[in-house]
Amino acid sequence: MFVIKNKYFLLIENIKDIDLKNIKIRDKFSIIYRNNKKIDKLSELLNFKQKCKLKGIKFYIANNVRLALSTNCDGVYISSYNKDLKYLNYKKKNFKIIGSAHTFKEISLKIKQGCSSILLSKLFMVNYASKAPYLGVIKFNTIARMSNKIIPLGGIKADNLNQLKNVFSEGLALLSEVKKKPAKIFSRLL
To answer: What is the pLDDT of residues 30-42, one digit of tens each?
Structure first.
């Protein structure tokens, strides 16, 4: 079964985590580079960004506006812990701000920060924190009715992709499945 959405956000921690050859559809995918440990070399980032542009994939850098602007990225991704409102100063043509949130308070902050999309975590239970709360489809849909900017993130795997047909969102975001089973996931996203 296929999952048809208008936007797919892929979160990666290293540019080697993803093979762009697996992505066949143009203008639906966005890659968010969020490496908090060691940032890849600038030349490698520029090369990767150029490959993304050739494939029609948008490229965002997490929490580093200067790096995003210097590499001429499509925008910046603001993590949920980032509460700074300075991002309002970076309104430039074709430069988008994407944010992530876990609560209503964080959602309203991301709206104030000027985010065009908000990745709301966690939709399903995740392996690394099995006792941590997650939303589920019904609760997510209730929150998503607040704004059409809300995109589900967290716990989305190949075996629960069919449940995303019931989610009121124009897209979805993937983190761990991009590394674990990329070919299987990309073959089911249209």
So the answer is: 999 988 777 678 8
pTM across the whole model: 0.87
Is residue 76's pLDDT more than 90?
yes
Q: How far is CA 82 from CA 41, 59, 63, 68, 117, in A?
A: 24, 20, 8, 16, 15
Q: What is the pLDDT of residues 133-171, one digit of tens each?
A: 888 888 888 888 888 899 998 888 877 877 888 888 888
Level-2 CATH architecture, domain 7-188: Alpha-Beta Barrel (3.20)
Handedness of CA 189, 39, 78, 91 (dihedral sign): negative
C-alpha–C-alpha distance, residues 121 and 187, integer Å: 24
